[in-house]
Amino acid sequence: MSPRGEVALWIAQRASAAVLALCVLVHIAVMVYAVQGGLSAGEILGRTRGSAGWAAFYAVFVAAVAAHAPIGLRAIAIEWLGWRGRSLGVALHLFAALLLVLGLRAVWAVFA
Amino acid sequence: MAMLQVDVWRGREDGRYQRFEVPREESQTVLDVVTYIQRHLEPALAYRFACRVGMCGSCAMTVNGVARWTCRTHIARVARDDRLEIGPLANLPVIRDLATDMREFFDKWARAKGQFAPTATRKDAPARVPPGSRSRATANAGIECIGCGVCYASCDVVAWNRDYLGPAALNRAWTLVNDVRDGARVERLRAVSGDAGCHSCHTHMSCAERCPKQLSPTASIAGLKRAAALALLKGEL
Prior knowledge:
The structure holds two protein chains of two kinds. By secondary structure, chain A is mostly helical. Chain A has helices at about 5-35, 40-50, 50-80, 85-110. In chain B, the strands form two sheets. Chain B has a five-stranded mixed beta sheet with strand order 2-1-5-3-4. A two-stranded antiparallel ribbon of chain B has the order 6-7. Chains A and B meet through helix 1 and helix 3 of A and helix 8 and helix 10 of B.
């Protein structure tokens, strides 16, 4: 990959990590707070259904995961498997798309 | 007289350790031990040294599993039960016995654009660099490298990726990035941002842990990552 591409990936990795750190904290804090009266599907859906705020929050969470995980896997693939080049790029884009689709589908399911 | 049991690597990559008995002396260094073996027990032993005072960077070897400069490493600090195992540096091809082929190590300094690129000529006045300036202080932090290869031999990323430029070459690049007289900053950042450049560093810090000059190549590499990111965002890269 070109130096520009390499640096861009590094920035994306660090930026998505910063977003993830915040999202995970909010996610866990809300979970701990919400289960105090017992946790049920109904209670979760009652909070998320129709809530544009929570849908936006989790959409951002999913996007950060879809950016962060494949870049990390790329380093592992290069160092441990010696896998490089175009085929690796294609595989990682597919993996990112998979994370994005599955994640957004779940977000939609608790929103709609 | 107390004796040291010393296992010394013989041959190339497919060699083996050979046992020698060496008299224990006061204030003895690992290099003293190797030199004793070469002068009294095995004249064919291949090893490398020059200054004997920690300046030239040529005597680094693996001592009891750890890369060290042997001229400044006292036996009292590293021998376990009067036993020593001395081998060539890791991550480099072995020429013979304790001598490694350092070519790829130094070629990587060149690939990381470790050469100073002047912006002035001999007709210009000497540059004035305030000693207290930030860039001067940052360059100073990495400038005492003696090129011994201890960091390179200790680096896991070098072991995983043979193209990785390594801590010493990247540290050198970082001192030049902070040299206000140098004119190749962007080219250098490009050179160290490739597949095998500073972005491959995992911040294990083995280089900083083992550097005999107590430099922190890890900090230099982190500086290169930041500088490259800023250069990309400014559209320079």
